[in-house]
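Tutorial, part two.
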Amino acid sequence: MAWGASRIMARPSRGRGPSMSGAAEPPYVGVVCVGNEYRQDDGFGPAVARYLRECYRFRPGVMVMDRAVAGFDIVPELLDLDAVVLVDALDGTGAPPGTVFAFGPQDMAVGGLVASLREVRFADVLAAARFMGAACAGRCFGVQVADRGSGALERGLSPVVAAAVPPTARAVARYLDAEWDARPRRRGEMLGHGADPVGEAGRFC
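Running the prediction step on this input gives:
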């Protein structure tokens, strides 16, 4: 898959102070995977969430969340985070369906680099959280959809978007490890298996 947007690195964690043992607590990170599985390619976010849960284990403090929308109702969940990663379906990027993007929240804007299928921009949600005192950094991963859905309830990703799920999940895991010390461990590695562990759904991770 091609990577569309320029890479914008997150700032270093602000830290959470020493724990009772005297050691600094690791950063709290939320991975918010957004979408409706019953609107075809809009289910990309939940598919990435399943892949991450089935194929990886992260250190405590890294949470994978599945949400139908990422509106202002999630602001309270962001207040205690050092970083939030959004995974969502995109449209209007001008790229071929299945193209994977990594970008900053400020790039997800009307007339900007990429556009979510949501009515509320994640950049505005993050700004609201920061206004309320949050100091979390933001990062977004998304895929250009092939089928936004006709309005009728229909489950299942198009083949090209389904193929983008594993590389996107792996990119999220690499980012979390490099920037936030997430220590992702693939399930098969924890069990002493080979390089391609099988997830709970019976597929290779």
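The first helix runs from residue 44 to 55. In part three we will examine how such features are distributed along the chain.
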